[in-house]
C-alpha cells in the first residue's frame, strides 16, 4: 500500500510538493509536461488520477508525476493491470528500494524552479538534438592515437573536432563487455549497476545467469526465420537507470534506441526504458529484438528483414585496405597487411556458420550502420528539439582482436574500416540533422592484452597459462579436498555453497585462507582476493589500489567468493588473447567527446568511464541521480 499525500496549499504558495511515503518502495519520475498537476495514486489496483488546476497566480507548473510500484510484468509474466500499455510509466526495478523520497523532492523542486525561471535561458542554449553514444568493443586506450596517421573518416573527424581523453580507465577489475557497457551507460561501477560480468552465479535466483537474459520475455522472430526457444533479453538484471533514462525523464518526447552486434551491448547501452534495442542474431542473420521492447516488429524493420541484407556479404573475402607501408612501424603493426580471410566454410548458401563468420568480421559494422540509418529515418531521430539518443556498439574490434591481437594488420584494418564507415554515418547525419545538432561520445568497454608472441618479442611479461599452472590448480584443489573432505563445497567456479559450509560447520574464512595459500604457489597467479577482504575494504579505510578495483566489481549476490588475479600479461586461454584483468592494458580505453560549440583538444588528466554519462547529462543540462559513481567532467569539455 502506497500513500502519497499532496498538500495543495504548499503547491499554490511555493511550488513545493510534500510527499509522505509509507513504503519507500517507489520509483518516481517526472515524465511529461502538462498544464495541470496529475498524480497517480496507487494502492495495488488500477491507478486513479487526481487532477487539480495549476496555480496560475504564481506561474505555471507543468509536470506529470508518475509513480510505479510494480514492474509492467512481474517475474511470472503477469501484467499489472494498472500499467499495461502505459508508455509514460518507467519500469520500477529492484533498485528502487534504495531510492529516497528526498531525491524525488529535490527533482520536483528543481523542475518547478526551472518552470518559473529557467526555461527561457535554457532554450537559448545550443542543445544537441541527437546524442550519439559510440562504443568500440575492445577499443583499447592507445588505438585512436596509434592508428591516427591512417584515419581519414569518422575517427579523424572526432579527433580533429573533439576532446580526447588520453588517460581514461574503467575503474573496476572485471574488464568485460557487460561491466564496461553498463559503466558507460549508468555512471555506476559494476558493484552498483549489478553487471559484475557477462554471466554469473546468482545467489538470489540460485542459478547461473546471463547478464541480459529474461525468461519473462521472448526474442521476436523475424519473418521467415525459425522461432527460437528460451527466453528473451531485457535490462531486468541491470540494477540502475542509465543516461537514456535520465534524458527521457527530462523530456518524455526524447527517443532512445540502441544497436549492437552483441545483445548485452545493445541492451545495456539503452538503459531501463529504451524505445528499442536491436542485436545480431546468428541464426537468421537479422537484427532482432525482444518482447521487452515491442510486441512485434514495426513496418520498417519487417521491410529490412525481407531484404536479407546479410546475404549480400556471402561470398565476400576480407582483404585489407591499402595502408602506406611506411606508417606500419609508427602504428606498431607487426607483419604486413596482406591477408585474405573467407567468411564461413564450404557452404553453397548462407548458413548459420556464415552468419557467425559475419558476426566475427568487420563486415558486421556496415550492416549495422545500414540498419541504424534506416532507424534514424523511420523514427525521425534528431528531427525536433527533444534530445534523442542513438547508442551504437561495434563488436568487430573485439572479435577480430581476440584472434589476431592489438598489433595485427587485422585489427588495424578493422579500425580503418570503422573509420571510413563512421565518416559515412556522420555525412548522413550532417545531411539529415546537421552535425552542429549532434553530440558524439566515443568510448570502449575494455581493452585487451597483447598476444603472448608479441610480449615475448618485446620483452614484456606474460604468456599463456602453462601445464604447470593446470597441475598447480589441481594440486591445490586436492589439498583442499584432503583437508575439508569431499563435498559440494562450490555451486560453480569459486562460488561457495553456503549450505554445505553451514552443514559442515566450517567458517568461510578458514576455506578462504587455505585456498589463498595453496593457489599462491601457482606460477601464473599474482594474488587471490577473498570476499572477506573485499567486503571489509568496502566498509571503508585504506584501500590497496588493485583491491579498490575488485571492490568496484563486487556485488554480494552476484560475485564469486574468490577472485583469481593472474600475473600481468597472462592469458587465460589457449590461443589468441583476451581481457578481463585489472591491468592497465584492460582498463585503459579510448574516450572522446565531440560536442557542438565546445572546445577541441586533449585532456591528459586521469578520468574514469563512469564519468562519461554523468558528463554528458551535465552538458545537456539535465538532472542525474545522486548515487552515480561518476564525476561531472564537463568543465574539461566546455569552451
Ligand atoms: Zn572480448
Q: How are strands sequenced across the largest beta sheet? A: 14-13-12-17-5-18-26-6-27
Euclidean distance between termini CA atoms = 50 Å
Categorize the overall geometry: globular
How much of the sequence lies in strands comes to 15-25%
Please name the fourth-level CATH homologous superfamily of the largest domain: Alkaline Phosphatase, subunit A
List cofactors, ions and other ligands: zinc ion
At CATH level 2, the architecture of the largest domain is 3-Layer(aba) Sandwich
The number of distinct β-strands equals: 28
Helix content: 25-40%
CATH class of the largest domain, anyone? Alpha Beta
What oligomeric state best describes the polypeptide chains here?
single chain
Account of the 3D structure:
It is a single chain. Helix 19 (531-538) packs across helix 20. The chain is 34% helix and 17% strand. The protein is of the alpha/beta class and 639 residues long. It folds into three domains: 8-123, no CATH class; 130-155 and 187-440, Alkaline Phosphatase, subunit A; 466-523 and 525-566, Gyrase A, domain 2 (2-Layer Sandwich), CATH 3.30.1360.150. It is built from 22 helices and 28 strands. Residues 138, 398, 402, 579 line the site of zinc ion.
Give a short summary of the structure.
With 639 residues, the chain is an alpha/beta fold. The chain has 22 helices and 28 strands. The protein has a nine-stranded mixed β-sheet with strand order 14-13-12-17-5-18-26-6-27, with helices on both faces. Strands 1-4-2-3 form a four-stranded mixed β-sheet.
